[in-house]
Amino acid sequence: MPTPIVLVAEDDAAIRDLLTHHLQRDGFEVVAVADGNAALRSARELADVVLLDVGLPVIDGLEVARVLRRDKHDVPIVMLTARSDEIDRVLGLELGADDYICKPFSPREVVARVKAVLRRAGKPFTSRASILQFGRLQIDESAREARVDGIDIKLKPREFGLLLALALNSGVALSRRALVERVWGYDFAGDERTVDVHIRRVRRKIEEQHGLPPMLQTVHGFGYKFMRA
Ligand code: CA
Predict the structure, then answer these.
(1) Which domains does the chain have, with CATH numbers?
(2) Most exposed: 4, 94, 148, 227, by fewest CB within 10 Å?
(3) How much distance in Å is there from the Cα of 22 to the middle of ligand 1?
(4) Beta strands of the chain (E only): which ranges?
């Protein structure tokens, strides 16, 4: 199966970043959001599994879970609860969450639970090799480095994120919006054309400076796709 996308819905930036880091290191794609509205949208549109904080702004996590289940959306949900009295609510309301974890938690534990709910949902995830090789270009996912002929290419984090998102979906056109959501996050409010600027930089650093054939192809009026050279 393609890389599962984990939606991390958590308004505490430190926890959000910590979870994102650990999940990415284990080979998951992560979309992180900070409020319940964005969580609902992302859960419906692109998530394979949801890590859902109970205490979220705009719409709280319990309500997000309730709405998803009401709409017969069966994405696996792991609730993150901050207080022991929330556990009773999470369990008592029979929201249809698949699991819950109390804060403070160890990120390893969270990753293990995410894998467990995916397995139970019939979508087992085994970490794939984290190095992708396309001719002379090597993309090392866990080190978050790109190399040409073994030489490290200095890519900024967003540039690497775009390259990786496209390479993981080799041959598939991804819209600018999809790329923004994966690399900048759902709450990105800027211009989607920023994707174009970053793609140009990646092309310059990889294709032009190292004489590689064009791999990042423009899909006019839509976005980009990665084509193996
Ligand atoms: Ca919270």
Answers:
(1) 5-120 (3.40.50.2300), 131-226 (1.10.10.10)
(2) 94
(3) 19
(4) 5-9, 29-33, 49-53, 77-81, 99-102, 131-134, 137-140, 145-148, 151-153, 174-175, 216-219, 223-226
Backbone region of residue 50 per phi and psi (left: phi > 0; alpha: psi in -120 to 50; beta: other values) = beta
CA of 223 to the centre of ligand 1 (A): 34
Cis ω before 213 (30° cut-off from 0) = no
Q: What is the DSSP letter of 16?
A: H
How does pLDDT run across 90-138, given as a tens digit for each residue? 665 567 788 888 888 888 889 888 988 898 888 777 655 578 889 999 9
Given the structure tokens 């996308």, which residue do they identify? Answer: 5
* Cα→Cα distances 189→7, 23, 194, 201, Å: 18, 24, 11, 21
Q: Are 216 and 195 spatial neighbours (Cβ–Cβ below 8 Å)? A: no
Per the confidence metrics, is the pTM higher than 0.70? Answer: no
